[in-house]
Every structure is written in C-alpha cells, then in structure tokens.
Design goal:
This protein is an alpha+beta fold. It has six helices and nine strands. The longest helix has 26 residues.
C-alpha cells in the first residue's frame, strides 16, 4: 500500500507539472511529465496483475525475488514477469502493447497464414476462450520445452515450461487468471 501511495503522489506531481508546463507554453516539459505519469499508472497496473498471478504451479513455487514489473516508454508498454521452480522451470511474461500482437493475431485468425506457418512444432490452441499458439521445442539433449503465446487485448501473455508435455503446460496455462488480467490491462 505504501508503494501505491508513492506512485499516486508522483502521479499527482507529474500531472500538476504537466498542467503548469502546458499553461506556460513549455510543451516538451508537459509531454515529458505526462509520459512519467503514464509510466506510474502502468507500474500500478502491473503490480495489480502480479497480485493476480498464482503463487504455485503444481509443485513449483514462484520465485518472488525474480518478480519484475517494468514500465517502458514508447514502443512497448508494461512488462510483467514471474518464474516458477528452483531452476526457473516455468516462466510467465506479459508485455503490454506488444509489437508481436498483430503478427500473432494474423497467424491465429487467418487459416491460410496459419496453415503456411505450421511446421508440426506449433499449433493453434484455446486457453479460457482466448486463441493462442503452442510451440514445441525439442533440444539436442532430449529435453522438450513448450511455449504458449496468447494475445489478451493489446498485450501478449507468453508462458514457457522446460522439460514438460503439451498437456501439462496446457493445464498450467489454464490456471492463469486471464480474464482478470484482461480487465486490468485493457
């Protein structure tokens, strides 16, 4: 709660500075202050999303020291990351305003493109009503890793698991609160 108050104070100060800069005709300063305020809002939202994420995936506990929320300026929005397991067996990242959304949506929603890009290592799936892509990666050491990418609004949820099966990663992905995340990040 202290962090939220701190962000709120910075947000208020940034908005006030933007208003005074705008009134004084200092548009570059106003723009910079508005960007700072938007970053603070992104951090608050990112921390709220982090609270919604499961603290365990089966027997894998999350690694709270690795939890990370970053507000990016410009190209991509907030980046949220959490890992699970002693060897970071499972990795979850959410990138707001991801530049990959349009490409992935084209793959998921255009049968011709999806068919051309299918190589047996990826397939279209549904997680809680959201279309996504499941990709299999077999390593030289015989380990099979899977990645699920799911567009949620303008954000990309990427879920990776090492040395697992497609059914196991699907089970884990279905424990993610995608609808709550979608409400927070829209």
């Amino acid at each position: 709660m202290i962090a939220a108050r701190s962000y709120a104070q910075n947000f208020t100060a940034d908005i006030n500075h933007a208003k005074s800069s705008y009134s004084a005709g200092k548009l570059e300063d106003a723009h910079f202050s508005l960007l700072q305020a938007m970053q603070e809002v992104d951090l608050i939202i990112g921390n709220e999303v982090m609270k919604q994420l499961p603290v365990k995936m089966d027997s894998y506990a999350s690694n709270p020291g690795d939890d990370n929320v970053n507000a990016n300026v410009g190209f991509a929005g907030t980046t949220i990351r959490r890992s699970y397991g002693p060897e970071k067996n499972i990795d979850l990242s959410i990138i707001g305003n991801s530049p990959l959304i349009s490409t992935l949506n084209a793959f998921l929603n255009t049968p011709l493109i999806g068919g051309m890009m299918s190589n047996g290592a990826n397939k279209i799936i549904k997680i809680q009503g959201y279309k996504g892509q499941l990709t299999k990666d077999a390593t030289a050491s015989g380990q099979t890793n899977y990645t699920i990418q799911v567009p949620v609004g303008s954000s990309l949820v990427t879920f990776t698991a090492k040395n697992t099966t497609d059914s196991q990663i699907m089970n884990w992905a279905n424990t993610l609160p995608l609808q709550q995340i979608a409400k927070l990040i829209q």
